[in-house]
Amino acid sequence: MALDIDAARRKGRRKRRLRSSSVVAGCAAVVLAAALAIPAALGSPGPGFQAADPDRPTTTSTTGPDEQEATGMVDRRHNPLVAKASFGWLPEVITGVEYGVGDHGDYALAVGQGEYPPMIWLAVYDKEPPLDRLGKMGGQAVSIPAKVGSHEGYWVTVDPGDPLNRGYAYLRWETGDGRWAEINAYYLDFRDPQQALLRVAADVKVEDRAVPLPLHISGLPDNFRLGDVTTLRRPELNDGLPWAVQLFYTVNGANVAFHVKPAGGAPPRFGDPVCKTENELLACVTVDRPVAADLGPIGGAQGLLDRVTLLGLDESRWTDRVIG
User: Fold this and answer.
1) Could you tell me which residues belong to the region Disordered (predicted)?
2) H helix and E strand count, the chain
3) 0.90 cut: is pTM over it?
4) Which fold has domain 82-130+137-210?
5) Reduced to 3 states, what is the DSSP secondary structure of residue 291?
6) Is the dihedral of CA 18, 20, 25, 27 positive or negative?
7) How many CB atoms are located within 10 Å of the residue 8 CB?
Protein backbone atom coordinates (compact mmCIF):
# COMPACT_ATOMS: atom_id res chain seq x y z
CA MET A 1 0.00 0.00 0.00
CA ALA A 2 1.35 3.40 -0.97
CA LEU A 3 -0.12 5.70 1.67
CA ASP A 4 -0.99 9.04 0.03
CA ILE A 5 -1.91 11.53 2.75
CA ASP A 6 -3.26 14.16 0.36
CA ALA A 7 -5.33 11.63 -1.56
CA ALA A 8 -6.70 10.33 1.73
CA ARG A 9 -7.77 13.82 2.71
CA ARG A 10 -9.48 14.41 -0.65
CA LYS A 11 -11.36 11.13 -0.38
CA GLY A 12 -12.30 11.98 3.19
CA ARG A 13 -13.94 15.17 2.03
CA ARG A 14 -15.98 13.34 -0.60
CA LYS A 15 -17.09 10.66 1.84
CA ARG A 16 -18.06 13.29 4.35
CA ARG A 17 -20.87 14.30 2.01
CA LEU A 18 -21.98 10.66 1.98
CA ARG A 19 -21.84 10.55 5.81
CA SER A 20 -19.28 7.83 5.84
CA SER A 21 -16.32 7.65 8.20
CA SER A 22 -13.27 9.76 7.50
CA VAL A 23 -10.89 8.23 4.96
CA VAL A 24 -8.02 9.98 6.68
CA ALA A 25 -8.90 8.13 9.85
CA GLY A 26 -9.28 4.98 7.82
CA CYS A 27 -5.81 5.40 6.37
CA ALA A 28 -4.40 5.78 9.86
CA ALA A 29 -6.16 2.57 10.84
CA VAL A 30 -4.66 0.84 7.84
CA VAL A 31 -1.21 2.03 8.86
CA LEU A 32 -1.80 0.65 12.35
CA ALA A 33 -3.18 -2.67 11.11
CA ALA A 34 -0.99 -3.22 8.08
CA ALA A 35 2.45 -1.79 8.72
CA LEU A 36 4.13 -4.28 6.45
CA ALA A 37 2.02 -3.24 3.50
CA ILE A 38 4.23 -0.18 2.98
CA PRO A 39 6.29 -1.11 -0.08
CA ALA A 40 9.95 -1.81 0.38
CA ALA A 41 11.03 0.05 -2.74
CA LEU A 42 8.96 2.94 -4.01
CA GLY A 43 11.76 4.73 -5.78
CA SER A 44 11.45 7.36 -3.06
CA PRO A 45 14.42 9.27 -1.69
CA GLY A 46 15.78 8.12 1.64
CA PRO A 47 15.23 9.83 5.00
CA GLY A 48 17.85 12.50 4.25
CA PHE A 49 15.91 13.86 1.26
CA GLN A 50 15.38 17.62 1.17
CA ALA A 51 12.20 18.46 -0.70
CA ALA A 52 12.76 20.29 -3.96
CA ASP A 53 9.13 19.69 -4.94
CA PRO A 54 6.80 22.00 -2.96
CA ASP A 55 4.14 19.27 -2.94
CA ARG A 56 6.27 17.26 -0.53
CA PRO A 57 6.81 18.50 3.04
CA THR A 58 10.42 18.96 4.07
CA THR A 59 12.38 16.26 5.87
CA THR A 60 15.55 16.15 7.92
CA SER A 61 18.78 17.68 6.64
CA THR A 62 21.65 15.55 5.36
CA THR A 63 24.33 17.47 7.24
CA GLY A 64 26.83 15.36 9.16
CA PRO A 65 26.80 14.94 12.96
CA ASP A 66 29.47 17.61 13.56
CA GLU A 67 27.59 20.16 11.48
CA GLN A 68 24.33 19.19 13.18
CA GLU A 69 25.82 19.75 16.61
CA ALA A 70 27.17 23.14 15.50
CA THR A 71 23.84 24.27 14.04
CA GLY A 72 21.59 22.76 16.69
CA MET A 73 19.93 20.43 14.19
CA VAL A 74 18.51 17.08 15.25
CA ASP A 75 20.40 13.93 14.25
CA ARG A 76 17.89 11.43 12.86
CA ARG A 77 20.38 8.60 13.35
CA HIS A 78 19.29 8.58 16.98
CA ASN A 79 15.67 9.66 16.69
CA PRO A 80 13.83 8.74 13.51
CA LEU A 81 10.81 10.88 14.46
CA VAL A 82 11.83 14.49 13.91
CA ALA A 83 9.02 17.02 13.57
CA LYS A 84 9.67 20.04 11.36
CA ALA A 85 7.06 22.08 13.23
CA SER A 86 5.03 21.83 16.42
CA PHE A 87 1.67 23.12 17.56
CA GLY A 88 1.32 25.52 20.46
CA TRP A 89 -2.22 26.60 21.33
CA LEU A 90 -5.00 24.28 20.18
CA PRO A 91 -8.80 24.34 20.67
CA GLU A 92 -10.18 22.30 23.55
CA VAL A 93 -11.80 19.79 21.20
CA ILE A 94 -8.30 18.63 20.15
CA THR A 95 -7.33 15.66 22.29
CA GLY A 96 -3.95 14.67 20.85
CA VAL A 97 -1.23 15.34 18.30
CA GLU A 98 -0.03 12.63 15.93
CA TYR A 99 3.16 12.70 13.87
CA GLY A 100 4.34 11.04 10.70
CA VAL A 101 7.74 11.23 8.99
CA GLY A 102 9.39 9.40 6.14
CA ASP A 103 8.77 8.31 2.60
CA HIS A 104 5.09 9.23 2.69
CA GLY A 105 5.51 12.79 3.93
CA ASP A 106 6.21 14.64 7.16
CA TYR A 107 3.34 16.13 9.14
CA ALA A 108 1.86 16.87 12.53
CA LEU A 109 -1.85 16.22 12.99
CA ALA A 110 -3.90 17.75 15.79
CA VAL A 111 -6.95 15.54 16.15
CA GLY A 112 -10.04 15.15 18.28
CA GLN A 113 -12.44 12.26 18.74
CA GLY A 114 -15.84 11.18 17.54
CA GLU A 115 -17.41 9.97 14.31
CA TYR A 116 -16.01 13.01 12.50
CA PRO A 117 -13.03 14.07 14.62
CA PRO A 118 -11.74 17.60 14.03
CA MET A 119 -8.43 17.47 12.18
CA ILE A 120 -5.74 20.13 11.73
CA TRP A 121 -2.84 18.99 9.53
CA LEU A 122 0.44 20.92 9.71
CA ALA A 123 3.26 20.69 7.15
CA VAL A 124 6.31 22.77 6.19
CA TYR A 125 7.56 23.34 2.63
CA ASP A 126 10.94 24.53 1.37
CA LYS A 127 9.31 27.08 -0.91
CA GLU A 128 5.86 28.54 -1.47
CA PRO A 129 3.61 25.89 -3.01
CA PRO A 130 1.40 26.62 -6.03
CA LEU A 131 -1.89 28.19 -5.01
CA ASP A 132 -3.80 25.01 -5.87
CA ARG A 133 -0.96 22.65 -5.05
CA LEU A 134 -3.12 19.55 -5.49
CA GLY A 135 -4.67 20.72 -8.75
CA LYS A 136 -8.17 19.90 -7.48
CA MET A 137 -9.83 23.30 -7.34
CA GLY A 138 -10.83 23.39 -10.99
CA GLY A 139 -8.97 26.59 -11.75
CA GLN A 140 -11.05 28.46 -9.15
CA ALA A 141 -8.41 28.78 -6.43
CA VAL A 142 -8.00 32.28 -5.02
CA SER A 143 -6.05 33.65 -2.08
CA ILE A 144 -7.42 35.82 0.69
CA PRO A 145 -4.70 37.74 2.58
CA ALA A 146 -4.33 36.95 6.27
CA LYS A 147 -1.96 37.99 9.03
CA VAL A 148 -0.50 35.00 10.89
CA GLY A 149 1.12 36.47 13.97
CA SER A 150 3.81 38.79 12.56
CA HIS A 151 3.96 36.94 9.22
CA GLU A 152 2.11 37.50 5.99
CA GLY A 153 -0.11 34.67 4.84
CA TYR A 154 -3.31 33.82 3.06
CA TRP A 155 -6.26 31.47 2.89
CA VAL A 156 -6.68 29.30 -0.22
CA THR A 157 -10.30 28.86 -1.28
CA VAL A 158 -12.60 28.49 -4.26
CA ASP A 159 -14.93 31.20 -2.94
CA PRO A 160 -13.56 34.73 -2.35
CA GLY A 161 -16.31 35.28 0.20
CA ASP A 162 -15.50 32.13 2.18
CA PRO A 163 -11.94 31.86 3.57
CA LEU A 164 -12.80 28.50 5.15
CA ASN A 165 -13.42 26.96 1.72
CA ARG A 166 -16.76 25.32 2.59
CA GLY A 167 -15.33 23.73 5.72
CA TYR A 168 -12.14 22.37 4.15
CA ALA A 169 -9.75 25.17 5.08
CA TYR A 170 -6.22 25.91 3.91
CA LEU A 171 -4.15 28.58 5.68
CA ARG A 172 -0.61 29.23 4.47
CA TRP A 173 2.10 31.60 5.70
CA GLU A 174 5.79 32.43 5.26
CA THR A 175 7.81 31.32 8.28
CA GLY A 176 10.50 34.00 8.20
CA ASP A 177 13.33 31.80 6.91
CA GLY A 178 12.16 31.34 3.33
CA ARG A 179 10.02 28.30 4.05
CA TRP A 180 6.24 28.12 4.09
CA ALA A 181 3.92 26.45 6.58
CA GLU A 182 0.38 25.29 5.88
CA ILE A 183 -2.49 24.00 7.95
CA ASN A 184 -5.34 22.07 6.34
CA ALA A 185 -8.31 21.74 8.68
CA TYR A 186 -11.77 20.21 8.50
CA TYR A 187 -14.56 18.70 10.65
CA LEU A 188 -14.21 21.81 12.81
CA ASP A 189 -17.06 21.96 15.33
CA PHE A 190 -16.16 24.92 17.53
CA ARG A 191 -16.96 28.62 17.75
CA ASP A 192 -15.42 31.01 15.19
CA PRO A 193 -13.16 28.50 13.41
CA GLN A 194 -11.57 31.20 11.24
CA GLN A 195 -10.15 33.10 14.21
CA ALA A 196 -9.29 29.85 15.98
CA LEU A 197 -7.21 28.65 13.02
CA LEU A 198 -5.40 31.99 12.83
CA ARG A 199 -4.54 31.61 16.51
CA VAL A 200 -3.38 28.01 15.96
CA ALA A 201 -1.15 29.09 13.08
CA ALA A 202 0.31 32.06 14.96
CA ASP A 203 1.39 29.75 17.77
CA VAL A 204 3.07 27.15 15.54
CA LYS A 205 6.81 26.77 16.15
CA VAL A 206 8.78 25.91 13.01
CA GLU A 207 11.99 24.13 13.97
CA ASP A 208 13.30 20.58 14.09
CA ARG A 209 12.22 18.76 17.25
CA ALA A 210 12.91 15.17 18.15
CA VAL A 211 9.63 13.68 19.38
CA PRO A 212 10.08 11.45 22.47
CA LEU A 213 9.00 7.84 22.02
CA PRO A 214 8.26 5.02 24.50
CA LEU A 215 11.13 2.74 23.46
CA HIS A 216 14.89 2.62 23.17
CA ILE A 217 16.64 0.35 20.63
CA SER A 218 20.22 -0.40 21.58
CA GLY A 219 21.32 -0.39 17.95
CA LEU A 220 20.26 -1.33 14.43
CA PRO A 221 22.36 -3.01 11.72
CA ASP A 222 23.89 -0.61 9.20
CA ASN A 223 21.72 -1.92 6.36
CA PHE A 224 18.45 -0.83 8.02
CA ARG A 225 16.83 2.00 6.07
CA LEU A 226 14.09 4.11 7.60
CA GLY A 227 10.80 4.06 5.74
CA ASP A 228 8.24 5.75 7.98
CA VAL A 229 7.46 6.47 11.61
CA THR A 230 3.87 7.07 12.69
CA THR A 231 2.12 7.80 15.95
CA LEU A 232 -1.60 7.37 16.56
CA ARG A 233 -3.67 8.96 19.33
CA ARG A 234 -7.22 7.88 18.52
CA PRO A 235 -8.58 5.09 20.72
CA GLU A 236 -11.32 4.30 18.20
CA LEU A 237 -8.62 3.21 15.77
CA ASN A 238 -6.49 1.35 18.30
CA ASP A 239 -8.60 -1.25 20.12
CA GLY A 240 -9.64 1.39 22.65
CA LEU A 241 -6.05 2.11 23.65
CA PRO A 242 -4.92 5.76 23.88
CA TRP A 243 -1.93 5.57 21.52
CA ALA A 244 0.31 3.42 19.33
CA VAL A 245 3.72 3.90 17.71
CA GLN A 246 5.15 2.18 14.63
CA LEU A 247 8.63 2.35 13.12
CA PHE A 248 8.99 0.91 9.59
CA TYR A 249 12.33 -0.07 8.06
CA THR A 250 13.44 -1.81 4.89
CA VAL A 251 16.26 -4.37 4.87
CA ASN A 252 17.42 -6.02 1.64
CA GLY A 253 14.00 -5.27 0.13
CA ALA A 254 12.14 -6.76 3.11
CA ASN A 255 9.93 -4.80 5.52
CA VAL A 256 10.77 -4.83 9.23
CA ALA A 257 8.55 -2.99 11.70
CA PHE A 258 8.51 -2.21 15.42
CA HIS A 259 5.07 -1.80 17.02
CA VAL A 260 4.57 -0.38 20.54
CA LYS A 261 1.33 0.24 22.44
CA PRO A 262 0.03 -0.08 26.01
CA ALA A 263 -0.21 -3.62 27.32
CA GLY A 264 -3.57 -5.26 26.73
CA GLY A 265 -3.69 -4.41 23.08
CA ALA A 266 -3.68 -7.09 20.40
CA PRO A 267 -0.47 -7.97 18.57
CA PRO A 268 -0.38 -7.28 14.82
CA ARG A 269 -2.55 -9.76 12.92
CA PHE A 270 0.03 -10.31 10.19
CA GLY A 271 3.75 -10.84 9.70
CA ASP A 272 4.14 -13.60 12.35
CA PRO A 273 4.86 -11.07 15.15
CA VAL A 274 7.38 -11.72 17.90
CA CYS A 275 6.24 -9.84 21.02
CA LYS A 276 7.02 -9.06 24.64
CA THR A 277 5.34 -7.15 27.47
CA GLU A 278 7.46 -4.93 29.70
CA ASN A 279 6.75 -1.91 31.91
CA GLU A 280 3.03 -2.05 31.02
CA LEU A 281 3.78 -1.82 27.30
CA LEU A 282 3.53 -4.33 24.46
CA ALA A 283 6.23 -4.39 21.77
CA CYS A 284 6.21 -6.54 18.65
CA VAL A 285 8.58 -6.98 15.71
CA THR A 286 7.24 -8.11 12.33
CA VAL A 287 9.20 -9.17 9.25
CA ASP A 288 7.37 -9.82 5.99
CA ARG A 289 10.20 -11.61 4.11
CA PRO A 290 12.53 -13.10 6.71
CA VAL A 291 14.78 -14.92 4.21
CA ALA A 292 15.50 -11.68 2.33
CA ALA A 293 15.88 -9.71 5.57
CA ASP A 294 18.65 -12.14 6.63
CA LEU A 295 18.41 -11.33 10.33
CA GLY A 296 20.00 -14.63 11.38
CA PRO A 297 23.34 -13.08 12.47
CA ILE A 298 21.52 -10.96 15.07
CA GLY A 299 19.07 -13.64 16.17
CA GLY A 300 16.19 -12.95 13.80
CA ALA A 301 13.12 -10.98 14.82
CA GLN A 302 13.64 -12.11 18.41
CA GLY A 303 17.14 -10.69 18.34
CA LEU A 304 15.74 -7.34 17.27
CA LEU A 305 13.09 -7.46 19.97
CA ASP A 306 15.79 -8.19 22.55
CA ARG A 307 17.39 -4.87 21.67
CA VAL A 308 14.21 -2.98 22.62
CA THR A 309 13.77 -1.45 26.08
CA LEU A 310 10.24 -0.27 26.86
CA LEU A 311 10.00 2.91 28.93
CA GLY A 312 6.49 2.66 30.37
CA LEU A 313 3.25 4.62 30.26
CA ASP A 314 4.61 7.80 31.86
CA GLU A 315 5.33 10.00 28.83
CA SER A 316 7.69 12.20 30.84
CA ARG A 317 10.07 9.21 30.89
CA TRP A 318 10.05 8.66 27.12
CA THR A 319 13.26 9.34 25.23
CA ASP A 320 14.21 11.60 22.35
CA ARG A 321 17.25 9.39 21.69
CA VAL A 322 15.51 6.29 20.43
CA ILE A 323 18.35 4.50 18.59
CA GLY A 324 21.78 3.74 20.03
Assistant:
1) 47-76
2) 6, 16
3) no
4) Jelly Rolls (2.60.120)
5) helix
6) negative
7) 17
